[in-house]
Structures are given as C-alpha cells and as structure tokens.
Amino acid sequence: MEALTEGAAKLLGAGIAIGMGLIGPGIGIGILGAAAMNAIGRNPEARGAILTNMILAIAFAEALGIYALIVAVILALVA
What we know:
With about 80 residues, the protein is mainly alpha-helical. Helix content is about 85%, strand content about 0%.
C-alpha cells in the first residue's frame, strides 16, 4: 500500500471538508422548507411572515455551507 502524496492528501482533505460541511446545512434547509410549507398549509393568512422568516433562516444555514466551501478551497489550493 502506497502512502498518500501531499497533493492527494490535500484534495482528500478538501473533499472531506466540503462533504461534511454541507451535510448539516443541506438537512437544515430541507427541514426549514418542509416546516414552512406545513405552517403555510395550516395558516395561509400568515404566508408573508412565514416566508420572510424561512428565507432568513435559510440564508443563515447557507452561510455555513459557504464557510465550508471556503475552507475546502483553502485546503486544496493553499495548504
């Protein structure tokens, strides 16, 4: 069994970082969307407030995914 080269280890680390870093935001965004649609179905009059809060929460979850992407790019190109 051969040892990993430096380049291969960097790419493997970047792949693991982005893969693990996007699992949480992906699940969170799915749960947020499902909960918002459920809430709109139960109370259609509150659609505007529900959608506003959903979009804000999705933006925060997406920011975590963007941080994971930045870390993966740094690992792949700089480290």
